[in-house]
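stuck on whats below:

***
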Amino acid sequence: MKLSTTTKYAIAILGFMAQHQESKYSSKQLSEELNIPYKYLAKIMTKLTKNNILSSTKGKYGGFEIIKDIKDIKIIDIVVVFDDVNNQECVLLDIKCNYEQKCIMHDKWQKPKCAIDDFFVKTTLAELIEKSSIVKVFK
């Protein structure tokens, strides 16, 4: 599975917010902090809110905040909001790759692919941020 840029940004946004849970953030603040184009980030925030990962409060003291315990948010919960987890696009080439139409890497790629899928299903947002500095990814 290839993660889209949108999914990568969403993970970075949520990771940053999880590291700084004491605050609410505006789209503008997050855009500047993470160096993600404002309009792009705003669309991501809207989708995360509609999928009950974030809440949004309007007004002077408003902003976005994570509404679930970060120990309960699995990476797959973020991925499925933006990407088709059943996508059969080849990791190597821009083709569909499955058991009927195999690329040259298909058979060897299955074991690492399963490990990555397992990582998404088992890893929480809390575990992801334990020893990381997500903000540095995009600066």
Notes: The mean pLDDT is 85. DSSP finds six helices and two strands in the chain. The longest strand covers residues 54-57. The longest helix spans residues 106-122.
